[in-house]
Each structure stands twice: as C-alpha cells, then as structure tokens.
Amino acid sequence: MIRVFIADDHRVLVDGLQTLLLDIEDIQVVGTGHTGLEALAYLQDHEIDVLLLDINMPQLNGIETAKRVSKEFPSVHILALSMYNKASFIQQMLKNGAKGYILKNTGRDQLIEAIRTVASGQQYLGQSVSQTLMNNLLSGQDQSMSFIPEITPREKEVLHLIAKEHTTTEMSAALGISLNTVETHRKNLLSKFGVRNSVGLVRAAMAKGLLD
Is there a domain that residue 102 lies in? Predict the structure, then answer.
C-alpha cells in the first residue's frame, strides 16, 4: 500500500484528490494539510511513502518544504503538484529533492501513474513539464535569472520596506501585522528569489526591475 499525504492550501483541491484516489486499491491518502508546516508536523509522528506537495502555500512554501523533508525524512518521496509550468519552479523543486513534478490539470490516470512511479523511487515528469525543461535547455538561456517570481501584494510591501532598511519591528508597526508574520513573508521572499539574505533579496529584486 502506498501511503500518501497531500499538502495544498486549496481545500477544494485536496477534497477532490482524496475522492479521485479513494477507490485505488494500492494507494491510501493517510493525511492532508494546508501548509508545509502541517506536512512536517505530520511526518514527525507518521510514516508515509509519497508527499503530494503544492508550491504556493502560506507559512512555508513547497520549495522550502521539499528541502526540509528531503533532509529530515529522506525516505519520503516528493511529488510536486503545481499550477506553475515554469522551468525555474521545476528546477528548484527537483534540486530540493522532489522525485516528480506534474501540473494540477493532470488527469486521474496520469496522477495515479505519477504516484506509483515516484513511490518506487523513480523520477516522473508530466509531458508538458518535460517539454518545458527541454525548451529551456534548447534555448540555452538561464530562465532562473530572467524569471520574475510571483509575489503577493503583502510580500511586495515587505520587499519595499526591506529595501528601505526597515527592521522587522518597524515593518510590523508599519503594516499592522505581527513580527512572526513579517518573518514569514521575508522567508517566502528569500525562497522565491532563491537568495540567502536581505542583501541578496534587494539585489535580485532590483535586477528584475521590482525596485526603483
């Protein structure tokens, strides 16, 4: 039996996936969560075979979740399920330990095939995902440099305040949000831009034309 945990912040999608997999004899959805932190918390006390993981989630996005799961729970096979068919996202997920990457418009049969393939330790990429990576390779361009991450309006506000050298406390007061929420937005920005600190974040944002 392949034990699957679904991590996605869209409840309707999670419910739909559970229904799709309900009558598959060799696959069992043993748990669900709506953030990366919920997935990590579940893994502390339960064993699973496949983590079906969304990318764009609050608190801890899929890219960072995959990185932590790969390090802390190496026996878990990660299958990314995303709406983003972009080389930069695909490459980051694979780099951080994902065994597979499929899109949310994937059909039921392909989803089941992907889960079974990843559970066996093999890599699985959806057809359109493979084509995206091939096009990126043939173009000879580093799309990770030209790609502009999708950030929320609040993340954009935090980004501009970081660029103005505001402290976490100052950003909390200016935006009317908690210190922890500010740090969550900051961590999400670092992950989306693929940088390690605020200096790198500001440089990357300026290079992409997101800051004056």
Answer: yes
The model's pTM: 0.69
My answer on whether 104 and 14 are in the same domain is yes
Report the amino acid identity of residue 134.
Answer: M
Residue 72: exposure state from Cβ atoms within 10 A (0-12, 13-18, ≥19):
exposed
Show which of 122, 139, 156 is a domain's final residue: 139
Structure tokens at 101: 């990457």
Helix axes 168-175, 179-193, angle to 10 degrees: 110
Check whether residue 154 and residue 128 sit in a common domain.
Answer: no
Tens of pLDDT, residue by residue over 39-80, are 999 999 999 999 999 998 888 889 899 999 999 999 999 999
Closest CA to 163 of 208, 109, 104, 203: 203
Residues 160-182: tens digit of each pLDDT = 999 988 999 999 999 999 999 99
